[in-house]
Amino acid sequence: MHMMNYDEALSYIESIEKFGIDLGLDRMKELMRRLGDPQDKLRYVHVAGTNGKGSTVAFISNILMAAGYKTGIYISPSLDRFTKRIQVDGKEIDKEVLAQLTQKVKDAADSMAEDGLSVPTEFEQVNAIAFLYYEHEKCDFVVLEVGLGGRMDSTNVIKVPEVAVIASISFDHMQYLGNTLPEIAGEKAGIMKEGGDVVVYDQAPEVMEVFKKVADERGCRLYVSGKPKDDKAVKYDLTGQDFIFELDNSKASGNRILYNDSPYVGNEIDSDNKSDTFSDTFSNSGNKVSESYHIRLLGEYQIKNASLAITAALILQSKGFDQITDRAIKEGLSNTCWEGRFELLQDNPKVIVDGAHNPDGIKVLVSSLKRLFPDKKIVFIAGVLADKDYKSMMAQIAPIGKIFHTITPPNSRALSAGDLADTFKELGADAVSHESVEEALDAALHNALEDDVICAFGSLYYIGEVRKLILKEI
Q1: Same domain (yes/no): 191, 45
Q2: Does residue 231 share a domain with residue 91?
Q3: 282 and 364 share one domain
Q4: Which of 40, 83, 99, 316 could form a disulfide with 92 if both were Cys (CB 3.0 to 4.6 A apart)?
C-alpha cells in the first residue's frame, strides 16, 4: 500500500471540496465513527465568534501551556504553512505524521464514498486529522477554533467542552450564517452544549438575548466576561498594552457574572455558591476583582479578547483545574504573540500587518492606527475578497490613507487590484494597483520616508506573503 508523503498529503487536502452540499454534522460524525471517535477522548475549550477568535485561542492556549497542561491548538487557515493549523504546545504537527494521518482519514473518507455516502469536506477531513493527532499526543486540553459559524461546524462534533467561549459577533460569511446579528449569534450559540459552561463578551442586547435563550434551553451556565476597566488600556505603545481587568460578582451589580439562572445549576452547585468560589479563587477581596495584566498584542480590541481568555481561565480554575494559577494567567497572556494581527514587522519605515477583513475589523484597525499614530496619514497595501462588504470597509479607512497600493489576494473569490483601486479613487483617495504582493510592497517601501507607517490589511490570504517578504529582507 502506498503511503503518502507531505506534498501528496497537501495536494490531496487541497483537492477536496471545501463545502458540502448539506451543512449538517452527519458526515463528520460518520467519518469520526470510522476513525474510532478520537475526539471523545479529549478535553476542550471551544471558541467561536466573528472577530477575535484566533487571538482568543492564542491567549487561552498560552495560559494553559503556562499552567503546564499539554495543549493542542486548532486554528483555521494559517497565514502561510498548512502545519500551523494543527499544533501541540506551540509546535506544529510534524510533516511525516501529517502525511500518515491524512492517509488514514482519506481511507475512511474513501470507504464512505464506496458505501454511497457523501464525501467529507476539506474542513471536515482536516479537522479529523487534527483530532487523531491530539489523541495520539495525549493532550490535556485542546483549544478548538470554530471554522465557520458554530452549530454546523465540523468542530461541533465534540461532546460538552470544559468551557465554550464566544468572542464578538458581527457580519461576515452572511451567505452561510444569516443576515441579522441574532441569526448569526444563533449559529455561534450552536456550540453551547447541554449543561456546559459558556462565557461570552457582553455585546448588543439582541445578541445577548439569543445567548441567554439558548443557554436556558440547554441548561448551560452563561457567564459574561470580565472587562478592561473603562474599556481601555492604561498604557499603550508599540511594545504592547497594560490594562486592568475587572470582574464584579456582587448581586447588586447589574453585570453579575452568572447571566442566567439555569435550572440545572441548582442540582450541581448552588449558583450563589458558584459565583463566590469563582471570585474567591481569583482574589480574596470578596465579590470584586481587579487585577492588572500586560499583553504584547496591539490593537484596542485585544484587551477584550484577553479579558475573555482570563474569564475562561477563571472558570476552568473554579472547576478544579488548579494548575491555572494567577501567575499562569499573567504569564500566558504576556507570552502570547499572534501573527498577522496588528503585528509590527519592522521599524523605519514601520511596517504593520493586520488581518482585518470585515467592517468591524476595519473600524478597530482605524482606531488603533489613530491611537498609535495620531494625525499621521498611513501608506496602505490593500487586498480583499469580493464577497466581503468592501465598499463600506474602504470608506472607513480611506480618510487616513496617504496612498493605497492595491493587490489581488491569491484566492478565487478575490476582488481584482484594479477594481479595488477604483473603489478608493471613487472615495477620493490616491490608489495604484499592482500585479503582485511583492510589487506593491516594493513600491510602498521604495517611496516611503523614514518616519512613514506602512500597513497591509484586507485579507489573511495575502498577509502571510507580506510577512515572508519582510522578515526575509531584514
Answers
A1: yes
A2: yes
A3: no
A4: 83
Examine the pLDDT at 257 and tell me if it is beyond 60.
Answer: no
8 Å CB contact between 60 and 309: yes
**Range in 102-106, 280-284, 288-292, 432-436 the model is least confident about:** 280-284
Q: Is 358 helix (H, G, I), strand (E, B) or coil?
A: coil
pLDDT at 78: 64
Q: Which helix (H) or strand (E) holds 118?
A: none
Helices 326-335 and 53-66, packing angle to 10 deg: 130
Name the CA radius of gyration of the chain, rounded.
22
**Alpha-carbon distances, residue 343 vs 99, 298, 328, 457 (angstroms):** 31, 7, 24, 11
Is 186 in the same domain as 280? yes
Q: With the CA atoms of 100, 106, 112 and 115 taken in that order, what torsion angle do they form, in degrees rounded to the nearest 10?
A: -100
pLDDT of residue 35: 99
Distance CA(39)–CA(134), nearest Å, equals 8
Beta carbons within 8 Å of 266's beta carbon, 6+ residues apart: none
Cis peptide before 349 (omega within 30 of 0): yes
Please state, in angstroms and rounded to a whole number, the distance separating the CA atoms of residues 444 and 61: 36
Neighbouring C-alpha atoms within 13 Å toward the C-beta of 18: 6
Q: Identify whether residues 369 and 296 lie together within a single domain.
A: no
Of 316, 335, 354, at which residue does a domain stop?
Answer: 335
- Tell me how far CA of residue 61 lies from CA of 10, 19, 93, 309, in angstroms: 26, 28, 16, 9
Q: At residue 147, does pLDDT exceed 90?
A: no
Which of 296, 318, 335 is at the close of a domain?
335
Q: How confident is the model at residue 258 (pLDDT cuts 50, 70, 90)?
A: low
Specify the pLDDT at position 185: 87
144 with 265, same domain: the answer is yes
70 in the same domain as 40 = yes
| Alpha helix ranges (H) inside 4-72 | 6-15, 26-34, 53-66
Residues 6+ apart with CB under 8 A from 146: 46, 47, 48, 49, 53, 76, 153, 155, 156, 188, 191
Q: How far apart are CA 379 and CA 444, in angstroms?
A: 7
Q: With 80 as the cut, is the pLDDT of residue 276 above it?
A: no
Cα distance between residue 407 and residue 164, in whole Å: 37
Domain holding 170, by residue range, is 6-335
The pLDDT mean for the chain works out to 87
Q: What global pTM score does this model have?
A: 0.80
The three-class DSSP label of residue 283 is: coil
Is 389 in a helix, a strand, or coil?
coil
Q: What angle do CA 337, 363, 168 make, to 5 degrees?
A: 65
pLDDT tens digits along 393-422: 999 999 999 999 999 999 899 999 999 999
Nearest of 451, 462, 467, 456 to residue 401 by alpha carbon = 456
Q: Classify residue 1: in a domain, yes or no.
A: no
